[in-house]
Amino acid sequence: MGAAAKFTKILPALRRFSDFPLLLAFMIGLYLAAIERYVIFHSLLESALIAVTFSTFAFTWNARRLESGYLQLIGVACLPIGVCEVLHMLAYPGLTVFVDGNEANLAPQLWLAGRFVLVAAVGVASLLGGRPVRPGWAFAALSLLAGGLILSIFTGHFPRAFIAGEGLTRFKVLCEYAIAISLLLACLLLMVRDYRLPRSTRILLGTYYICAAATSLAFSSYFAMYDHANMLGHYILLLGTYAFYKAIVETGISRPFDLLFRELTEAIRARDEFLSIASHELKTPLTPIKLQLQGIQRLMLSDRLSSLSPAQLNRMLETSDRQINRLTHLVDNLLDVSRISAGKLQLQRETVDVTQLFREIVERHQGEIKTAKVVLDTPVPPVVLEADLIRLDQVITNLFTNALKYAPGSRVELGARREPDGSSLIWVQDSGPGVPRAHRRAIFDRFERVPGLTSASGLGLGLFISRQIVEAHGGQLRLADENGNGSRFEIRLPQQ
Ligand code: ADP
Questions:
Q1: Cα–Cα distance between 30 and 312 in angstroms, integer?
Q2: Whose CA is nearest to atom 11 of ligand 1?
Q3: I need a labelling partner for 470 at 20 to 30 A (CA). Which of 115, 177, 437, 445 fits?
Q4: Which ligand 1 atom is at minimum distance from the Cα of 402?
Q5: pLDDT of residue 481
Q6: Most informative mutation of 396, 463, 470, 489 for ligand 1 (most atoms within 8 A of CB)
Q7: Contacts of residue 473, Cβ cutoff 8 Å, sequence gap at least 6
Q8: Is the pLDDT of residue 372 over 90?
Q9: How far apart are CA 144 and CA 166, in angstroms?
Q10: Cα 411 to the center of its chain, rounded Å
Q11: Are 443 and 435 in contact (CB under 8 A)?
């Protein structure tokens, strides 16, 4: 790759950091201020950090419907952290806001309070592993923590952090070490797990954690509040906060708009695909019904209806009846999906003998069994459980007809047994082609089918509905791993 091509490739990434020279100029300005008076350096730098912290909170809060998870937790922590930082800045020796001669202790104590809130937020976010959080609750909990810490500091219940003439206390040093270790650990977890965050966001946030950990190490070694370790710590924190802002606001919060757009496009594509499959599926049974009716009408108009034997007429009616059943089944499935989506799936529990149910289902499908070899594994004593008979029938029927459809001519086993823990296990196993590994999860989703596996008709709704019904019973429906030897669907229902 030529130098020009390489440059064009990294240009967009560079553009994202186009404000870096401004930051550099600010850092130089800060140094000049520090030569004049250290408290000016500190106040200016802290003001910048506070501005970033508060605006990050504002962004996160306003985008809370878009982003829920890791970044949101860290984002809502910014307000309580910011409040600690404001108090820390005002308490800094030389500003004479809290004039009790104890500022050299007060400022690092308030700094620690802010870091504790940060570590709590990062810790919970890491433990939750990117799962959604309730922003209101998270904000309330972290604000309570910050409030408690600030109160304990101003009422003198917080351990001392700095003793004039002696330097930092053991407590402060140990706390800084613990904060640094926690942040480095969080950084490691951030790199190993993905927390559903894009790589660029994780790298930027990881940079912030490393900078914040380095700041804590620098803050564990200063003797006077104006020495070089203190200044270095503040500079590193400023750089880290720049990465933090980029991570949360620029790549973290604005990214969901891209994500939303992609999901929307995907949803429209899935809807169009579903409409074309659904209209095809609904139309297919209509053609034979129409043909049968037209045939009867033709015979009637030409006065030849009596030439049909009762057996021929019965066959024609049976064909139409089968197609009407198929149509009813498709429409029922669609109605079930909307019922499930609206949370209106209701169960009428009664005592069900599973073996008896198996027999009825097999009896009902004699016409479709044809080449399959159906085996009933009848447990002794019979498995009897409390369930919604019609819905359980629907689930087992779906698994059974799927076996007939997708594993034609194979051995199909229907079985049940009572487990030692009192739960019931029901299985439908076939010796057909099985479900490819890549599709084993997806087939339980709405409208999902294994592409190109079979020409058998279907809307990809049966397993979705079945799983919802089993879960409504408090149970689980899963596809057991059969290592390529057919499919084994297992329903586990808890003891009632
Ligand atoms: P449908 O049968 O209407 O397509 P389902 O939700 O019942 O919908 O099944 C989803 C997909 O799972 C099917 O399209 C098929 O690809 C696959 N599948 C289900 N059961 C089996 C089976 N016993 N063997 C192989 N593939 C199966």
A1: 98
A2: 449
A3: 437
A4: 20
A5: 75
A6: 463
A7: 347, 387, 388, 391, 392, 493, 494
A8: no
A9: 33
A10: 38
A11: yes
Rounded CA-CA distance 346/343 in Å is 9
Taking CB atoms and a 6 Å cutoff, what residues make up the pocket around ligand 1?
398, 402-403, 406-407, 430, 432, 435, 443, 449-450, 453, 458-464, 487
168-191 mean pLDDT:
95
> In Å, what is the CA distance from 395 to each residue of 198, 348, 424, 428?
39, 15, 15, 10
Contact assessment for residue 108 and residue 161, using Cβ atoms and an 8 Å cutoff: yes
Cα of 461 to ligand 1 centre, how many Å? 9
Residue with more model confidence, 368 or 216: 216
Ligand 1 atom 14: residue of nearest CA:
449
Residue in this structure with the two tokens 């650990």, named with its chain if needed? 185
Q: What is the DSSP string of 4-17?
A: HHHHHHHHHHHHHT
Classify residue 277 by burial, with Cβ atoms within 10 Å: 0-12, 13-18, 19+.
middle
Best mutation site among 443, 447, 479 for ligand 1, i.e. most ligand atoms within 8 A of its Cβ? 443
Q: Tell which one of 281, 331, 368, 402 to mutate to probe ligand 1, the residue whose CB is within 8 A of the most ligand atoms.
A: 402
The reported pTM is 0.54
| The pLDDT value given to residue 368 | 82
pLDDT tens for 309-352 read 889 888 888 888 888 988 998 899 889 988 887 888 889 999 99
The CA 443 to ligand 1 mean position distance, Å, reads 7
Whole-number Å distance, alpha carbon 472 to ligand 1 midpoint, is: 21
- 427 forms beta bridges with 415, 490
Ligand 1 centroid distance, CA of 49 (Å): 56
Percentage of residues in the chain having pLDDT higher than 90: 49
CA of 349 to the centre of ligand 1 (A): 27
Q: Which residue has the tokens 């669907």?
A: 489
Residue nearest to atom 3 of ligand 1 (CA): 458
Residue 417 in this model has a pLDDT that exceeds 70? yes
**200-243 per-position pLDDT tens digit:** 888 999 999 999 999 999 999 876 666 788 899 999 999 999 99
- Mean pLDDT for all residues in the chain: 87
How much is the average pLDDT of 135-151? Answer: 95
Contacts of 189 (CB under 8 A, 6+ apart): 126
pLDDT value of position 284: 85
69 against 496, higher pLDDT:
69
